[in-house]
Amino acid sequence: MTTIAIVGSGYMGGGIAQVLALAGYDVRIADLSAEIAAANLERLITEAGQFVADGLFPDDAVQRIQDRISAAESIEDAVADADFIEEAVPEKIEIKHATLSRISQAARPDAVIGSNTSTILIASLATAVERPERFLGVHFSNPAPFIPGVEIIPHEGTDEALLPFVEEIVQATGKQTARVKDSTGFVLNRLQYALFAEASQLVEEGVASATDIDTIVRTTFGFRLPFFGPFAIADMAGLDVYAFCYESLQTRWPERFATPAALKELVDAGKLGTKSGGGFLDLPTERTPELIAYRNKAYVAMQKLLDELGPAPIHAPADEAREATA
Q: Residue 70 and residue 73: Cα distance in Å, rounded?
């Protein structure tokens, strides 16, 4: 059996605790005080009831969460007997340093310690941890109960023998893990914030409104992203097409949209993606028809799901009616 402690019982930490409890782990949550941890436990139970009513959690989720999650009197009490500890306190390095120091002093020497940091270098946080070889990043995304991807981020001093143990814990919740090298922002937020920066630039230039940019993103390349990452999308589009598009963008922004070296190397070698064989994912050409058939079915299924759900409640009904008649 694996016992888990979550230090920081707010929205992120609480969501992580819920999915771990539903996966069968005993979880102790801790916060600045016993009162905060206890209040957050009650919130998690109430929230789980709503998720059950909405069809998002299994019917017995409330009972399982009540049975598996407990609120500790202190951080030290929470971590004392834990096999794995996840730190989920606010994204301020001084707060994380102070918390990780308390955790590592009170935890067993063999306890594995993870941080849910979104952007801070794991090596920078490791300086606060006794025996930093047992420390790594374990980055869940918001909302933790429902986003399936988790970044696993060892720093240079992490004992890599620990990675399968952590991956097993995370994967038991039904989530998918990806190993990422320690780099500021890791993968998720480097990509996410790069997109946001370019979107903001478009608004500032008056190219399109924030609403119209959101529409374009979610109905074009964003529509593909639940099924394919950027490299699969590029391979299917044709890497030569990507190279031509970069050349076009360079007529206005030669440095900002410089052709990636990896793309140029593949195109120069005639490895253009699915239409020629080779490419970033090196999919064999004989599998291209199968891939295209899957892609088309996936996109139709996605549109049916969106039609069933209806539009997100971002705009007032009157605004939606005006847009429909415009």
A: 10
